[in-house]
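hey m, so remember when u said the tokens were messed up on ur end? i reran from scratch. heres the input so u can diff it against urs
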Amino acid sequence: MPDRYSLTKAIGWSIAFVVLTLLLAGLLAFGIATLIVGPPEGAVAWLESTGPGATLLQAGVTLASTILFTWLIGMRALGLTLVDLRYRIGRGGSGFVVGGVAGALAAGTALAIAALVGGAEWIRDEGTPAGYLQAAATTVLILTPAALSEEVLFRGVPLVLLASALGRGTAVVLVSIVFALAHFANPNVTMLGIGNIALAGIFLGLAFYAPGGIWTAWGTHLGWNAMLAALDTPVSGVPFRIPFLDYEPGDPAWLTGGQFGPEGGLSSTLALIIAVLVARRWAGKDTT
């Protein structure tokens, strides 16, 4: 890795990376949406919806933009390598699987606490088991590029640069705060929800520094989101309609998360604290 970056340089390049990535992704999404649905007003409304097409488009253009600026800024301008960025393909497969299991277990723990203490429950809804499996699989496929794009955006170049200047621990916390604030406009957001997303960001940052690097963080992110969505709960306020199951959040909302989903409740706070403590030891197994 190049020499240690100054704090000013690390922050400046990190801001440039995020802003340029989001700007290009926004322009691409708007242009493509205009071609698909017509007038600009309709394109904006479509992009603001939570439909699968809009979600997949925004994830795709964000991923493409992050890849471009990872190469332009991270590799060409700053001289970072794939090893520096923790993109080592050799450990990718196992890291992704282990991360997926870890993320799913953490989300499952949050749901279990909400069910046992807050009365959250699942009731039979219209549809069939086959329809459920198809919808759940489709939802996970849609969430897959979305999780990767967010990981490359937040746990890619910015985290590596800030860790060089501030140390890993401080950088993980700082990036997690920015990661949480990026969800501030989500539907039904609460301050507890923002705090839990910051905790989730710490969990993901530690996963990034576990064996497998970015692929482990991707798997962890996807495992968390997929577990929640497949069980018909909102993910960071975004609802997912899964047939055959209907999720009832129970009470009180501060415990179960209410309409924001489990991430808005104390059940997720407890689950994520446990996950962070475990991931801290997990990250310590890879010192590269």
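this time it looks ok to me. The first strand starts at residue 121 and ends at 124. if urs says something different then somethings off w ur setup not the seq
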